[in-house]
Write a structure and sequence with these properties.
Layout: E1 8-13, E2 15-28, E3 35-48, H1 49-58, E4 62-66, E5 70-78, E6 84-90, E7 109-114, H2 122-131, E8 136-140, E9 152-156, H3 157-161, E10 175-177, E11 183-185, E12 188-190, H4 203-218, H5 221-235, H6 246-252
Parallel strand pairs: 1-4, 1-7, 2-5, 7-8, 8-9, 9-10
Antiparallel strand pairs: 2-3, 5-6, 10-11, 11-12
Helix pairs in contact: 1-4, 4-5
Length: 253
Amino acid sequence: MQQQKQFKILLLGDDCIDVYQYGTVDRISPEAPVPVFKCSHEEHKPGMAGNVLKNLEALGCNVNFFHNETSIKTRLIDIRSRQHIVRLDNDKNCTPINIDDLFPLEYDAIVISDYNKGTVTYELVESLRREFSGPIFVDTKKSDLKRFECCFIKINELEYSRVTSLPADLPSGLRVTLGKDGARYNDKIFPASVVEVVDVCGAGDTFLSALVVEYLNTNDIESSIEYAIKAGAISVQHSGVYVLTEKDIERLK
């Protein structure tokens, strides 16, 4: 990818802090037949749309990020095996974003990272489509995709299995990520390279960010999907949500 300019992006979506508590389990609780987790240290990373933000910025974009309440997901991870023991979700029922707060819409693209927590409504996306002439990229867990007419929609295979409707007008078709099998677009499979998968958490966010930036650079959706698959493959080789580095981006060229 040869970036021609610093793109200005409006990012809308659900925000999250991913908390990783690392520790060990050496005994069973005397109170109940459950493991006793002894935490040694923890780290915090931006999740959900916050992870999209960091990856867009890593790819050279100037991003305005709008969200409301922030959820917290805490993962307990065994240091020895690097395996998750349990995840504790403190999800927020978010207040919807008001479109009146977003003007003027002077952006190269709008990116929506919708984890269906309430931040992004169908009505908001429909209003944006009427008011904004540029490309709108949507990654959503909603099932009524007909409401996202004329948007570039990216969903994963599980989300696709739950879809109840599709738009009549999709720019260049629907992009469905397939994990280790790559992605499907207009009945064409784009394969992924075989890599050692450590953690798939956040890989879809990395894919979305790379897809947006490469499309803005090339206006070629197929090459953008191939580029995004490579970016996602880098992400899954790391523990937890991952932000692309300068070295990673050089490898993608």
